[in-house]
Structures are given as C-alpha cells and as structure tokens.
C-alpha cells in the first residue's frame, strides 16, 4: 500500500507531462492546415496574365472571338478593348490588323482577353512602358 501511492503519483505525473509535451505539436499541426489549404487554393484564384501580339487572322463576332496566329482569344464582358487610344468593341477589329494585349487561361482552356488594342500603337504611347498618370500640382 505504501508503494502504490508513489507509483500512482509518478504515473500520473508522467501522463500529465506527456500530454503537455504533445499539446504544442498538435497545435502546430492544426495551425499549418489552413496555410496548406490557402497554398492549394491560391493558384486557382490567381490566374497569371500573359501578353500576346501579332496580326488578326480571323474574327468571329457571334462567338466573340478573334484569332492571332494559331491561338483563339475569347472576349468577355470584363475585357477592355481599345482602338486608336479610344474605347472600342470587337466590331472594330479587322483581319490583318495589328493587335496586342493580355489574356488569362480559363479553367476550361479558353484564352480570355483581359485587355486588347486593335490597330497600331497610338502616337505618344511609348513601347513597353506603362502610361504614367499625371500627378496633381502640389498645393501652394
């Protein structure tokens, strides 16, 4: 009977210390699970925007597509279309005309147009540089 109390205390102390030692490991494992889920979802959410340029080979106004080389681009409601520096529509596209823009590859494999410019680059638009917004004059 005298031996049982110290032995029970030691077993109880051993169980408590093991539980305390393993608790942080479980918390770390649970904390990593949401991060792993975000990593898996982020490529699907963020689709890479890719550039294209060339000459228009074909235009299908009913399907809202145009072809450049061997690639067929889909115009969506979110696509921004310009011609001669002004807003335009797919109706303004002409076969043989210079075209440049950017697109995203959709999950169904379509090449969805983000931006497109039909015709030559407008005068004053530098090649390969983004337009800079005019800064308002500093207050006096």
Give a structural overview:
The chain has two domains: about 45 residues; about 70 residues, OB fold (Dihydrolipoamide Acetyltransferase, E2P). Strands 1-2-3-7-6 form a five-stranded mixed barrel. The chain is of the alpha+beta class and about 140 residues long. Helix content is about 30%, strand content about 30%. Strand 2 and strand 3 form a beta hairpin. The mean pLDDT is about 80.
Concise overview:
The protein is of the alpha+beta class. The chain is built from 1 helix and 7 strands, in the order H-E-E-E-E-E-E-E.
**What is the terminal separation in angstroms?**
93 Å
Low-confidence stretches: none
CATH architecture type of the largest domain: Beta Barrel
Under CATH, the topology of the largest domain can be stated as: OB fold (Dihydrolipoamide Acetyltransferase, E2P)
Question: What is the H/E string?
Answer: HEEEEEEE
What does the largest sheet look like?
5 strands, mixed, barrel
Q: Tell me the strand order in the biggest sheet.
A: 1-2-3-7-6
Counting helices, strands and paired strands, the structural category is alpha+beta
Tally of extended strands? 7
List the defining traits of the structure above.
2 domains; five-stranded mixed β-barrel; alpha+beta
